[in-house]
UniProtKB/TrEMBL annotation:
Gene that produces this protein: pheS
Primary localisation category: cytoplasm
Cofactor names: Mg(2+)
Aminoacyl-transfer RNA synthetases class-II family profile domain span: 108-326
Subunit architecture: Tetramer of two alpha and two beta subunits.
Gene Ontology cellular component list: cytoplasm
Compartments where found: Cytoplasm
Organism: Flavobacterium aciduliphilum
UniProt enzyme class: ligase
Name of protein: Phenylalanine--tRNA ligase alpha subunit
Amino acid sequence: MIDKIKQHIEEAQAFNEKNKEALEQFRIKYLGSKGLLKELFAEFKNVPNEQKKEFGQVINTLKSVAEEKVKTIQEELENKEEAKGIYGDLSRPGEPIVLGSRHPIALVKNQIIDIFSTIGFNVSEGPEIEDDWHNFTALNLPEYHPARDMQDTFFIQTNPDILLRTHTSSVQVRYMENNKPPIRTISPGRVFRNEAVSARSHCIFHQVEGLYIDKDVSFADLKQTLLYFTKEMFGKSKIRLRPSYFPFTEPSAEIDIYWGLKTETDYKITKGTGWLEIGGCGMVDPNVLKNCGINPDEFSGFAFGMGIERIAMLLHQIGDIRMFFENDVRFLEQFKSSI
Ligand code: PHE
């Protein structure tokens, strides 16, 4: 009998099946209410007295071996379960990472920033909700100035002094107020105009404006800077500056680049002329410098402004400006491979 129990002990010790069902069977077999140990304990009273001590020891050993076994395997199984919860099946191949794509406006903006930072321009930003001073008055557009009509403005109804900026020239005013020349900065950002939305214009768009102020800055510097930009951005090396008017620059010009007339699209976007307007520019009006605390007798400078949507439409052959704001993933996905 005792030998038989010792054999059970060995068997129990050898048990090593790591699954729930087998473990449960093992538990029932040894420790269950109709299990082996129950039987053996019941048998105890029939054991002759001189064997009782040894018999008691072996069945106790069997009991603790069986209990210990159940406990350790159970713990192991639980740990495994937990690890599965956290990591899943570690042998499975990895999930592919879904890559997002940058918005085309952000891509073009970053490209513009890269091009200008190469020649020493930093990036400045300002608030989209502006006051009259920074958007108009400081820029040589006092109250009732007719040129205010050039930019249809969204005003905050309860306070006519507060508006949504119509251009990022407001950032340049802030920059001049807070920094001494030499100044070389570009200000990219979102601007707002109360215009009817169509394929060619939108009430929200993005601009990047540039400002360079130092001693003896000339119109030739402006032209060279714009030429450098158009070469880098479009690979085009022919530009034209057409006389124009902006209240904050004197003289002022529209920037045209020669796009060419090679394809049908070229004809379409340049209206058959080969020339394409990409923005405005000029020498900063001395009044503007004065308004921003810079002495116009000592310093001069140039400024320019361009629409980012316009440039993105040209580069990526996008026919409708509204696409940029609809955020249709079928449109956005196409820019995945870009930087
Ligand atoms: N701020 C002008 C606009 O939004 C563009 C511009 C900037 C023109 C700087 C000249 C100089 O139309």
